[in-house]
Amino acid sequence: MRITAAVLDAIGAERPYADSRPLRIAALELEGPGPGELLVRIAAAGLCHSDLSVVDGSRPRPVPMALGHEAAGVVEGVGPGVLDVMPGDHVVLTFVPSCGTCEDCAAGRPALCGPAAAANSAGRMLGGGVRLSERGAPVHHHLGVSGFASHAVVSRGSAVVVPADVPLSIAALFGCAMLTGTGAVLSAAGVRPGESVAVVGLGGVGLAAVMGAVVAGSTPLLAVDPIAGKRELALGLGATEAVEPADAAAAVAGLGLDGIHHAIETSGTTAGIETAYRLTRRGGTTVCVGLPDLSKRFPVPAAGLVGEARTLIGSYLGSAAPQRDVPRLLRLWRAGSLPVERLVTASRPLGEVNEAMDDLADGVAVRQILEPAAG
């Protein structure tokens, strides 16, 4: 079938993207779903730093590629072997199409699925190959989703069926931002009521982590970001204090603490990781969620890591299990405990994807929703 999608032909374009236009809106051919796959009409897609990192080259991917990894839509067709999803079902799409049978999937760690990681790195489907093409030439998939499009074919393992009364513009954010941010707090760090938390970096994932820390009963809850508007939003979501990175250590001391129990780093920078690590107390945990440039390294005081029994861990997709956790998070949203709507800065037609990338890079947007039907 013929679809519309935002395609990246080359990485590393100069900014502003509104002028260089790294993403073009293209008419592509999309094959029907194969075994274990779904055809989904995309209703809404969230714009995330992981999309921006492909455009600017900090996370290189094969091109041409149809971008977008956080999306929601309506199933229009199912491939052979799919028995538990039907046309008309509403789904949230997640960027790790877990196979369900590898060692990590079997151990309850689907975010670490090995076959999915290999497929995502190669820009292909979990079931092998690609389903997108332009004038006969293949176009790569972005993290098994390619959600900046009117339609997508995805692995069944990429889709979580959700109730039809959940607005799809809200549901989309549960595919990445909410899973990753809340999961870093609830699954990776295992925050308990009364424990202190610092969130370093207040993009969509960081603010989701703030919401997760509130749900966990964290106190005090420190939010750290250089942008005043994001700090103000974090306070509105339940942070007890919000400061610039340079003031974070003084803020912890001002709270009468010798350090934070859990620091969640979501900025995707080595400076952010170092800030988060320095804020933790003896026996504290630093959870790294953001994805820095592949060339970056950061120092860790080895003696302190051991002598102060600190923990430094990485968390991909918030160490979440999407089929389990998306329904749980949606129940919290229904109860008013996860006000996801407050993360949405703007809704834009797909044709404004380059301008939206500029707003994301400038830090003036938290989560922008792209609407393919309006593109």
Per CATH, the class of the largest domain reads: Alpha Beta
CATH superfamily of the largest domain: Medium-chain alcohol dehydrogenases, catalytic domain
User: Can you count the beta strands?
Assistant: 18
Number of domains: 2
- The CATH topology assignment of the largest domain is Quinone Oxidoreductase, Chain A, domain 1
* Number of helical elements: 13
Q: Which regions are unreliable across 5 or more consecutive residues at pLDDT < 50?
A: none
Question: What is the second-level CATH architecture of the largest domain?
Answer: Alpha-Beta Complex
How far apart the termini lie comes to 18 Å
Helix fraction bin:
25-40%
- Shape estimate: globular
Q: What proportion of the residues form beta strands (DSSP E)?
A: 25-35%
Cα radius of gyration in angstroms: 20 Å
Summarize the biggest pleated sheet: 7 strands, mixed
Structure notes:
This protein has 375 residues and is an alpha/beta fold. The protein folds into 2 domains: 2-175 and 339-374, Medium-chain alcohol dehydrogenases, catalytic domain (Quinone Oxidoreductase, Chain A, domain 1, Alpha-Beta Complex), CATH 3.90.180.10; 178-318, Rossmann fold (3-Layer(aba) Sandwich), CATH 3.40.50. The chain has 13 helices and 18 strands. It has helices spanning 17-20, 49-55, 103-106, 114-122, 168-171, 177-189, 204-216, 228-237, 248-254, 270-279, 302-307, 322-334, 353-362; strands at 2-8, 23-30, 37-47, 65-66, 70-78, 90-93, 132-134, 137-141, 151-155, 159-162, 197-200, 221-224, 241-243, 260-265, 280-288, 311-314, 344-349, 367-371. The strands form 3 sheets. Strands 3, 5, 6, 9, 10, 17 and 18 form a 7-stranded mixed sheet that branches. It has a 6-stranded parallel sheet with strand order 13-12-11-14-15-16, sandwiched between helices. A hairpin with a 2-residue loop joins β7 (132-134) and β8. The chain is globular and about 60 Å long. The two termini are 18 Å apart. The model has no long low-confidence stretch (mean pLDDT 96).
